[in-house]
Amino acid sequence: MCINKKTALTIILLISIAGLLFSGYLSYSELFRATCPFGGCGGLLGVPVCVYGFFMYLAVFIVSICGLKSKEKRR
User: Fold this and answer.
1) pLDDT at 75
2) Rounded to whole angstroms, how far apart are CA atoms 15 and 12?
3) Is residue 73 within 8 Å of 15, Cβ to Cβ?
4) Which of 5, 11, 35, 58 is most buried, by CB atoms within 10 Å?
5) Domain that holds residue 36
6) Residue 15 forms part of a structural domain
């Protein structure tokens, strides 16, 4: 089974949106409400790890949008 570029990028885009929503909720709870909804949330260099996850999903989101908007070069 082989899928085309547009379908793959659309799936990646949807996964990144789900990741942004989840990590965004956790980041908001950790930073602004000072509580972790799931218990012991860890940190790295003084920043909650969910914030790093948010920015990683944001990068994947941006790259997938760029990939979907790019034109394929035809020979």
Assistant:
1) 47
2) 5
3) no
4) 58
5) 5-67
6) yes
Place of tokens 């949008």: 65
- Can you give the pLDDT at residue 72? 64
Global confidence as pTM: 0.82
CA distance 39 to 44: 16
Contact 65, 13 (CB under 8 A): yes
DSSP codes of every residue in 2-61: ---HHHHHHHHHHHHHHHHHHHHHHHHHHHHS---TTS---EETTEEHHHHHHHHHHHHH
Residue at token pair 């003084």: 46
Distance in angstroms (rounded) separating the CA atoms of residues 54 and 75: 38
Tell me, yes or no, whether 54 lies in a domain: yes
In a domain, 72, yes or no: no
